[in-house]
């Protein structure tokens, strides 16, 4: 047992609104910068033609699956475990969790590499890839997933720091990396002087170099005197109890992540019935939805730390209040973005190409789904907050309900002779189910194992207080 660190005390005692805003600011920066890394790459790959852009649309849901699993799901499990451990004043266990997190990252990184190198062609063909777009997708995919371990290590080490309430260091590392990526990506894609152009593979190599540099920088910080945690390898025994504490949150969260990306993958496959232009249009437009994930995660990561630390210290009401405040903030922000995209879809789409079929499909998606983005933001941030509580069963059920509505609704729409807009309408309805579903179960006491429907937070607290 040890005294509470000032950063941990901030999570337990400081006013919620300014604390969330203060911690979210650098975290939003890091997440938006990380998303921009993918957008930069897509921008330059788009210059290679519609087949290359369609190839990116095929691979992108799988890359985002890895990103969201490593940073959001398993990263959430890592951050939650460290936050709850620090809240309970178990500093030695918190230090030991760093090594356990790295072991998990190595295992999952290798699993992604093997799965996509062996099964990539089949997967992308099932998603509608054919001909030149399928060939380009395989080139890009093979390069990216050969270095999957780097992505996992980077996101896991960043999650370790976020679990302590430190949002600034991952932000600084990511922003510097993106600044380097801006010239590096076109250099490797198109070549310059003695450096030969690698085409679509160059974008993947640039991305991996970004993650390599970021991983080294985060590890150097953790080994420095400024780090709250003191990770070490010598004398540390791997313990199942610590693995379990991470995995019980991370694996359940991964189900939700798979469901989110599977809904996009299914929509991509359904869009494939209308040709490569429709795939490129949907994939390009849906990148805005994916961009909302890191934006919301900017708020979700500090909420996860606050909720986890407060629950570890027995402060349940503060944990709930923080979640609702963050939920309202993210609903407002993402709804505003969605409405703007629905009103002005072409400026976003024109960043990546001007193919008429791509523009038509992308515009249809943004006008149909954009006005419902607020529900996506609400669901996402409450999911991250739920990771801090260590209880994800009902939030994951809400995510699976989203998958069912998106997949089944889109398939039925096409089966009954519908158009592409009916596929997108199902996606929009799924977001509403997702956001309201998670809000309902959190309000009903899902974090504390007594699901019901109190009308107020006070009523909820009366029910969950121990007898």
Shape: globular
What structural class do helix, strand and pairing data support? Answer: mainly alpha
- Series of secondary-structure elements, N-terminal to C-terminal: HHHHHHHEEHHHHHHHHHH
Strand content: under 5%
N-to-C span: 27 Å
Description of the molecule:
With 467 residues, the protein is mainly α. It has one domain. The chain contains 17 helices and two strands. It has helices spanning 6-13, 16-46, 50-87, 91-126, 131-146, 148-163, 168-190, 200-222, 240-271, 276-312, 316-343, 345-349, 356-369, 373-389, 393-415, 420-443, 457-464; strands at 191-192, 195-196. Strands 1-2 form a two-stranded antiparallel sheet. A hairpin with a 2-residue loop joins strand 1 and strand 2. The chain crosses the membrane at residues 20-40, 52-76, 97-120, 140-161, 173-192, 198-222, 246-271, 291-311, 323-345, 365-385, 392-412, 432-453. This is MATE family efflux transporter. InterPro entries: MATE_fam (IPR002528), MdtK-like (IPR048279), Membrane_Transporter-Flippase (IPR052031).
């Amino acid at each position: 047992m040890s005294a509470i660190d000032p950063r941990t005390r901030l999570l337990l005692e400081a006013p919620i609104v300014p604390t969330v805003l203060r911690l979210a600011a650098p975290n939003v920066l890091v997440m938006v910068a990380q998303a921009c890394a993918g957008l930069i790459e897509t921008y330059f790959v788009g210059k290679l033609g519609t087949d290359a852009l369609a190839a990116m649309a095929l691979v992108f849901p799988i890359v985002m699956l890895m990103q969201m699993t490593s940073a959001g799901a398993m990263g959430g499990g890592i951050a939650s475990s460290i936050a709850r451990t620090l809240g309970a004043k178990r500093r030695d266990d918190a230090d030991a969790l760093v090594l356990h997190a790295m072991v998990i990252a190595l295992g999952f990184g290798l699993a992604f590499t093997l799965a996509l190198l062996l099964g990539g062609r089949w997967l992308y063909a099932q998603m509608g890839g054919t001909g030149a777009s399928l060939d380009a997708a395989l080139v890009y995919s093979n390069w990216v997933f050969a270095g999957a371990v780097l992505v996992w290590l980077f996101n896991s080490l960043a999650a370790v720091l976020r679990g302590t309430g430190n949002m600034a260091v991952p932000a600084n590392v990511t922003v510097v990396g993106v600044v380097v990526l801006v010239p590096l990506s076109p250099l490797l894609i198109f070549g310059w002087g003695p450096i030969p152009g690698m085409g679509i593979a160059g974008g993947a190599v640039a991305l991996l170099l970004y993650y390599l540099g970021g991983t080294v920088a985060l590890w150097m910080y953790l080994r420095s005197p400024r780090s709250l945690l003191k990770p070490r390898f010598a004398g540390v025994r791997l313990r199942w109890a610590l693995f379990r504490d991470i995995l019980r949150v991370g694996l359940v969260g991964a189900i939700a992540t798979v469901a989110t990306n599977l809904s996009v993958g299914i929509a991509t496959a359904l869009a494939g019935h209308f040709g490569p232009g429709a795939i490129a249009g949907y994939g390009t437009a849906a990148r805005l939805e994916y961009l909302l994930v890191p934006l919301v995660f900017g708020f979700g990561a500090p909420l996860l730390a606050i909720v986890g630390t407060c629950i570890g210290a027995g402060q349940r009401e503060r944990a709930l209040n923080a979640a609702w405040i963050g939920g309202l903030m993210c609903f407002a922000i993402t709804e505003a973005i969605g409405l703007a995209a629905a009103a002005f879809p072409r400026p976003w789409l024109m960043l990546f190409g001007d193919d008429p079929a791509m523009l038509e499909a992308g515009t249809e998606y943004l006008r149909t789904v954009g006005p419902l983005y607020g529900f996506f933001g609400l669901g996402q941030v409450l999911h991250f907050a739920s990771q801090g509580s260590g209880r994800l069963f009902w939030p994951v059920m809400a995510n699976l309900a989203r998958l069912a509505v998106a997949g089944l609704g889109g398939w039925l729409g096409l089966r009954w002779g519908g158009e592409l807009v009916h596929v997108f309408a199902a996606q929009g309805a799924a977001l509403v189910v997702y956001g309201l579903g998670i809000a309902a179960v959190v309000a009903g006491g899902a974090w504390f194992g007594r699901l019901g429907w109190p009308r107020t937070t006070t009523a909820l607290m009366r029910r969950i207080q121990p007898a």
